[in-house]
């Protein structure tokens, strides 16, 4: 890094213009010099999580997407519907880096012992702006990967593993003994299934396709219900009777699914009830919506008594609530079981420039199960 | 009470038959003899609360109601739609007495001092089966009314007052400082308005009619929004900015109102936010649904970030949660402010037989604001 040219690197940015245009582009930014307690990581793998897509494309209508920029600095533009601009108000005019988490090799380190100890090591990192070729980051936001683990293997160390562990932890802390999960064949869902098998927690998996049902069963799942089946409500109620699950985590959010889960929980509780209760079961039934794969409005019939709740669930407030010691324990578990419980699978690894190609966006933008992409910002350059 | 004839009295019963027929009738039951710690109350006033209507008519289609029974023991029958019979399963074949609360005069008392002390006194009572001419009940389920208070004035001592106080108490215990209430011109809503004025708690009242808006303003309410107004969302957001209310109690349940409240809470929070938060405001926003005046499905757009909750709220679990000492304190306040803060108004007082006339049911069955009825089981007989 001796010339000016070498001191800049590519970073992906997302900008909402006051005109209602979204512009996602690659910009050249200076390679940062790590502070004493920081390390400089050459990012080699960063997943495109649903939470990243929200920041990346905002509320833009991606059917209007057009290529822009130059060959070396390609970009994409798209229209944001007027009605959606209100929710974007806070970020208008601000060019925002993207990418919650990633992994790579420490190529420079600050003067502290903790930073120096990571020199040359492969680490997983959390902290935003991971769709960058280089990222300087405090040591305490890194997880040192076990020897032999590649950046791709460690790229999803934080969001999915801590979310899946957070669901089980939330279940326990709120007094439930089994749980329900939707979009259950996702990377996150498979992880949750492995955690529950290992920890002997009963899990009811809800999917939308026969092959997802087969996949989860092959992975040892006992309860897998297909929401598109004619017998879904009956199947789900049976699984809820068998497991006693009274808390669910729903990745879809829209449509009737969250309400159907509450309806079936109530039916399961009433199936074993001994006397008529005019206000329904007194057992609290909870659905946490943690994603928005289904963008339709949420709709439910209130046929599940009065002891129920729906609400948002988000990883970071949860981590704050449980405190640093509990979080550190969860992170240690992730590192220890990285290649087993917390293994992730990706359909493809793309470069920053490839991530901005319309045909590529069309695939990963669908958020479809089994089509998760990884960005390698240094693909071809290392 | 020297002859057999005098030892029975009328009681209203609701029965769901296996055939899907609802039968509401008056039956003769023995006048109970109070146990040592009980008093026998001649019930002279019992309100028809929405919670009573649920038990009274169940899921019956009251447009199919027909008169049955005899002149001295009149009744009403109606069809329960097949789809609704599932939820009725627990009560099929069981003739159930109705009426959560009421008030009357103690005409006999058990041997305990506490019971004897109430002899001849006017008391408010909670405990079901209040649509009866006589009710024997433990002393600790009575509130001794202040001297000069009539049974009609004390008839609604429990459900509405404790519900309204419970809302303010829930607001405080969950860390909010102001609240929103829907169907705000109801007896309960007027009570809540008086409590909030007295306790200096900011309250946002949501109503559906101009005259309800006028009524509440005349009663000193500062924030009254009309949900049928074209500027409702703007008006509500303004009121939420002014009050900082982040918790709501919704009596309607169905339709879009609960979601609109969360949307406006989020807009109010973002109006003063300093930077863009991709997951929306981090302040928790809560809507508790405590009634079902609107029987349509509940529908919402998830445009209020991730820090939100919807859920059922019910008086009795709340009272259990706060414990007997806190409940006793609330009851003391109700008795002390019976003719002011907790005054109720009724459109009409009817006898048990009148309560089963189809034209009378048509009025109180609507649950319309300002049309609450009182049953006097001893009307004409005292």
Walkthrough of the structure:
Two copies of one chain form a homodimer. The first copy, chain A, has 382 residues and is α/β, with parallel strands linked by helices. Helix content of chain A is 30%, strand content 30%. Chain A contains twelve helices and 20 strands. Chain A has helices spanning 50-57, 82-88, 113-116, 151-154, 159-173, 187-199, 210-218, 232-243, 257-271, 315-322, 324-336, 358-364, and strands spanning 8-16, 21-30, 38-47, 61-69, 74-79, 96-97, 101-109, 122-126, 134-138, 142-144, 178-182, 202-207, 223-226, 247-250, 253-255, 285-289, 294-300, 308-312, 348-350, 373-375. In chain A, the strands form four sheets. In chain A, strands 3, 7, 8, 9, 10, 19 and 20 form a seven-stranded mixed β-sheet that branches. The longest helix of chain A has 15 residues, at 159-173. The radius of gyration of chain A is 22 Å and the shape is globular. The two termini of chain A are 14 Å apart. The model of chain A has no long low-confidence stretch (mean pLDDT 93). The A-B interface holds A 54-55, 87, 89-91, 94, 253-254, 259, 270, 273, 275-279, 282, 289-290, 292, 297-303, 305-314, 316-317 and B 54-55, 87, 89-91, 94, 253-254, 259, 270, 273, 275-279, 282, 289-290, 292, 297-303, 305-314, 316-317. Strand 18 of chain A pairs antiparallel with strand 18 (308-312) of chain B, so a sheet runs across the interface.
